[in-house]
Amino acid sequence: MIQHIPFIITAAYLVIAVVIGFRAGRGYDMNTTEAWGAGSRSMGPIVVYLLVAAGGVSAYTFMGSPGWAHDKGVPALYVVVYLSYMAILAWYFGPKVWELGRRYGHITQASAIADRYESTFLGGLSGFVGSIGGLAYAVLQTIGSAYILNVMSFGLIPVWAGVLVTLAVISIYLYRSGLRAIGFTNAFQGALMFVVAWLVGMWAVNHFTGGFSARPIFERLQAEAPEFLTLPGALGDMGYAFWTSSILISFFSIWQSHWISWMGAKSGVGLKKAVTYLPLYYLVLIPMIFVGFIGIFEYPDIAKSDQVAITMAVDNMPVVLAGLLGAGTLAASMSSSEPNIHATALTYSKDILQPMFKLSDKTAGKLSRWLIFPIMGLIIAPISIAEPASLVYILLIGYGFIAQLFPLLAGIFFWPRATKVGAIAGLSAGFVVTVVFSFFIVHPFGIHAGIWGLGVNVLFLVVGSLLTKPASEATLKRFYDLTPEKPVAGETGTL
């Protein structure tokens, strides 16, 4: 019976998530895009903080980053660098995005693009390209969830069944409560993840070194396996060019799910206050990377390195702590899968199908909720069951596509001369290059495919824009003559 406690604790988390998420939508009409899509812009700074933070650190916190540390070594630290940069982007762009949404009714990233460039076609195209990265991320998280259930059940729940269970649970409260479900479950998940990561990391350091200093781990690596401490890493596949360009492509990525999460804040002031503290949360990655380094010696021949932390927990840790790690990892996976499924359904309905078929806002709002089921059943589930690559590599591929939207977003905030023709040409060219260099001629010269795509994208955007007519003066005035909102009572001070 004792050996089943970790699985019981892990499974109990699924029940808690359903209860929290289902109750989050009470009192709101979830058939409207405003309520289901943006949570009626009703979430305070603490919920927004944990919503964005927990959505940013996910299955790779407990699985991907220990797995990379185990296989490659210090290349895993790229994630710590790029998350800090993402926090800067959230701090700068988040309140501006929120203000545009409040004034002009934008919810999705693509709706703002369509408005600024006066092109519903461009909005739909950007929604589709961005969804590729979002779906890749959702696949990553779903695989992570399935791994957890498989390991914690000692193989009784196969990976394919874990995929179906996880998606079924998410569908219940995501359909019922939309962004509010994501916000309130992520608040719980985020707190759980932070506590569990440090408990597990410090326990592992103490158990395997006899103290709470990580120094002996690195001293042993320096003496016995120094290749883990420098680029290109132990596998020799993470050179300076790819490591640096992976950070850059992540920096230039503003996810659809993050954009929509920003829209859920009560105010721009509260949002800016929340994202100011994001880097503090991202410290959660450090102890789990320590676990991966420990696994280099303790589990040198593990079949799936993404499972090194979970395997170490099941084999060595007290059953309650192992169970909490299982619950925390499951929480990490689900907290990032939910917003990407939600964002994809929302943008497909609002930015692609609504203008294509001239749907009413009410119909588009209802359709958004139902679209989560085919997205889960026909896209995420089959790809997740196939387990196409390591968790972190799936993430890196996704970033290549997300980053292709950055030049368009720069045109919203910085360059009035950007035109819809230039934007369509740039996005299309960048997308094609990213596809070719991700799957056929993989990362030429060790530079991430998305960087190549981004360079071509910018070139086409600039040339195409200078050769064509800009947006109307009325549209440009709306976007470039924004006065920030005044602080709302009760939203001054600290988080």
TrEMBL record:
User: Could you cite one Gene Ontology molecular function of this protein?
Assistant: transmembrane transporter activity
Q: Membrane topology type, per the record?
A: Multi-pass membrane protein
Q: GO cellular component terms?
A: plasma membrane
Record key words, sorted: Membrane, Transmembrane, Transmembrane helix, Transport
Membrane-crossing ranges are 6-25, 46-63, 75-94, 121-140, 146-175, 187-205, 240-262, 274-297, 309-332, 367-385, 391-414, 421-443, 449-468
Protein localization: Membrane
Q: Mind telling me which PANTHER family this protein's record contains?
A: MONOCARBOXYLIC ACID PERMEASE, SODIUM/PROLINE SYMPORTER-RELATED
Family, per entry? Belongs to the sodium:solute symporter (SSF) (TC 2.A.21) family.
| Protein's recorded name | Transporter, SSS family
Q: Which organism is it from?
A: Brevibacterium mcbrellneri ATCC 49030
